[in-house]
Design a protein that fits this description.
single chain, 394 residues, alpha+beta, TIM Barrel, 15-stranded mixed β-sheet, four-stranded antiparallel β-sheet, 19 strands, 20% helix, globular, binds zinc ion
Length: 394
């Protein structure tokens, strides 16, 4: 009987789908109100030169991320800071699990005597929001009421969104595709996503698929990395991977702003090259925008430029894979001796488009974490997209 009902439903479904297909051909007056329309003036693009590149790790656990309460041996904040400084980091996000302290991060991690920014290492306030439906890192330049965000964690997304807005915090989905603790919330809640978790790049494939879907659907969600370390290790530790931000000023707010604006790229470790991605939109030979930036297309060809900076191996060749709207656009060989690649394309006039980069090549040794480079393999760096015709009011 059950089987018969199921068959009947299947037949009905087939008939109704067939009917819909015919009906669609006979609705000439239908207009989808959400179809892309020409945009008004977009906000001006920020300076490409006024600011500084800073590197850091945005997913680090300290001694406070311990089920049995604070464990001084595990990973003291003073040790984390000393290590971060030793590899040249400008900022760090210590993101302890908030459930171990029932949301009271303020009187635990943030109250630690070592938890203090100085000019050489900016500390972001935050925590790993640890919920039944997944994990997300909160970042803020100043203290906020984290308890309130912890308390709302299992409520409806609309209620969570209200609290998030009230607190003025930045939320970033962690290890969005799992394999455990996948991010089971609406991505409308997040400003960024951890598309590169730990030194094991290959396990992030599904997270990258989710990110691509968010971009393709008009959401400018920034990609960032995070090592997710809980204790010292010679395989995966602070800086595997390393997130770079182009901050307008040398302060914690500018680091958070860069995360919001997508002026961010990710490198395999603190010593691996950094990828920078620029575009010249008015054919004057000067670059006008960088990754994270959004402009209206002109219908004319745009020149894109990819540069690798820092510790580039001059005797090696890198591969620059360009992804356009989720599909492979091109692959370019970049000699380490002259690490610049340029290419041209003409984005459509009205529809949204984006271009992003995946850089592969020789791995860079990380002597402080000696087994990490082998695990990361030939993955060198990842850029955020350059956007065209994305509606800022989306
Ligand atoms: Zn987590
Ligand atoms: Zn974590």
């Amino acid at each position: 009987m059950y089987k018969n009902i199921r068959t009947a439903f299947a037949v009905l479904a087939m008939i109704s789908t067939g009917t819909m297909a015919i009906a669609q051909q006979h609705m000439p007056n239908h207009v989808n109100p959400w179809t892309s329309k020409p945009l008004g003036a977009l906000p001006p693009i920020a300076s490409l030169t006024e600011g500084e590149w800073m590197k850091g790790d945005l997913h680090v656990h300290s001694s406070y991320s311990s089920e049995g309460g604070y464990d001084p041996q595990r990973h003291p904040i003073s040790k984390i800071k000393a290590f971060a400084k030793s590899v040249g980091f400008g900022f760090i996000g210590i993101t302890d699990h908030d459930n171990h302290v029932l949301g009271d991060v303020e009187h635990n991690t943030w109250a630690d005597t070592a938890f203090k920014s100085d000019n050489s290492l900016l500390m972001l306030y935050g925590a790993e929001w640890t919920t039944t439906r997944g994990h997300g890192n909160v970042f803020s330049a100043k203290p906020y009421d984290h308890q309130k965000f912890y308390d709302v964690r299992d409520q409806r997304d609309a209620d969570i969104a209200k609290v998030k807005k009230e607190l003025g915090i930045h939320l970033s989905a962690n290890h969005p595709a799992g394999p455990k603790d996948h991010f089971g919330f609406s991505y409308d809640l997040v400003d960024a996503m951890e598309v590169w978790n730990s030194c094991l790049w290959t396990k992030n494939a599904n997270s990258n698929l989710i990110w691509e879907d968010m971009l393709a659907s008009g959401r400018r969600v920034t990609a960032r990395g995070g090592s997710d370390v809980h204790r010292p290790s010679d395989v995966n530790y602070i800086g595997t991977p390393t997130t770079w931000v182009f901050a307008a000023k040398h302060d914690a707010q500018s680091v958070v702003d860069a995360l919001v604006n997508g002026r961010v790229s990710i490198s395999a470790n603190p010593y691996a090259p950094r990828v920078e991605f620029y575009a010249d939109i008015n054919e004057d030979g000067k670059m006008d925008m960088m990754m994270g930036d959004n402009a209206k297309s002109t219908g004319k060809p745009i020149k894109f430029r990819v540069e690798l900076k820092g510790n580039v191996k001059t005797d090696s060749t890198y591969t620059i894979n360009v992804i356009k709207d989720g599909r492979k656009f091109g692959s370019y060989k970049m000699p380490g001796s002259n690490p610049v690649v340029e290419f041209t394309d003409t984005p459509k006039l009205v529809e949204r488009m984006y271009y992003r980069l995946i850089v592969e090549g020789p791995s860079t040794d990380y002597p402080e974490v000696p087994k990490s480079a082998k695990v990361t393999g030939n993955m060198v760096a990842l850029s955020n997209p350059i956007y065209f015709n994305f509606d800022p009011k989306f």
